[in-house]
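Researcher: We are triaging several targets before committing to wet-lab work. For this one, the compound of interest is NAP. I'm pasting the protein sequence and the ligand SMILES. What I need is the predicted three-dimensional arrangement of the protein with the ligand bound, expressed as structure tokens, so it can go straight into our comparison scripts without reformatting.
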Amino acid sequence: MNASSEGAGVAGEGAGGVLAHGFRPLWSEGSALDGPGLDGPGLDGPGLDGPGLAEWYAAPAPWLRANLAVTLDGAVAGPDGRSGSINNVADHVVFGVLRDWCDAVVVGAGTARAEGYRPASRPVVVVSARGEVPPTLLGGGVERAQGSSDDVGGGTGGGRLPGDGLAVAQDGAPRDGCVECDGRGEGLVLLVTSGSAPGLAAARRTLGDDRVLVLGDESVDLSLLRAALAARGWQRLLAEGGPGLLRSLLAVRAIDELTLTVLPRLIAGEGPRLLGGDWLDVPLHLAGLLTAADGTLFGRWQPEYATYA
Ligand SMILES: NC(=O)c1ccc[n+]([C@@H]2O[C@H](COP(=O)([O-])OP(=O)(O)OC[C@H]3O[C@@H](n4cnc5c(N)ncnc54)[C@H](OP(=O)(O)O)[C@@H]3O)[C@@H](O)[C@H]2O)c1
């Protein structure tokens, strides 16, 4: 299944289609879905439809949510180096809901390159130490797969990214206070880099000065990211990975929440895992747990930064 066909499927789901995936809250707190717990009546209920799923993922603003999908053994990509070879349709549905929720997408340049990111119905903010804008983001226009579905990433076939079908279908209005969100910032591409990035001058020529955010002199200071994007009115931020960016954001305590899809499969191999690099210890609080009929688990994990030094 390629990204286009998946995107069209999600876009065409409608509320009844989402219902068919059997999304059921196993645990949730701090929302209207508070209640039954692991063995409560929620498991016998009708499951969540599209609006119900969006409500389950509701979050305050400002909020920076990281969202990734892993196999049970922690892989974020299959043998082809893309997430499309490990994920599934239920994950795509949630991906669309989260795109709908956000004001802007933040993505590491490695992921944008690997997945072939393209402009989306939300601003795409690429983080690159080198200051290089992935070429697929420079194509212009918002590519859509059949009807209202974007085919943002994975556009060259096989990425995790089904596009923004739900966003386009359900939300036609600019968000309050979002200065660049007229039309939801559709098609915007921004680069976050440092003052010493080799590609800085070229990026400014390509994107325009206003689309290049220099955060830090020698290296990218991601602790400045949220404020820089909030200044544009983008407070609901969705960081779509990859592992390198996730680690960097955790290291500066910039993340409010990790929404993690756990896919019911094992893959082994040498591919990238959820996190790598130096040791990092981030205690997490489970704020919500959802399952789909196919056994995929969806967690809402919130770092408890305050509990460690
Ligand atoms: N399963 C999933 O949900 C999921 C999600 C996303 C990605 N993935 C997979 O993850 C793999 C890519 O992993 P990755 O770790 O290379 O992805 P990544 O974090 O997206 O990319 C790493 C690159 O992003 C930039 N970057 C990240 N953190 C930075 C920081 N603190 N400062 C400056 N630049 C920073 C750098 O770009 P420059 O090289 O341009 O300097 C760096 O080389 C792919 O296989 C992709 O398919 C899976």
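Researcher: Any quick observations?
Model: The chain has one domain: 14-307.
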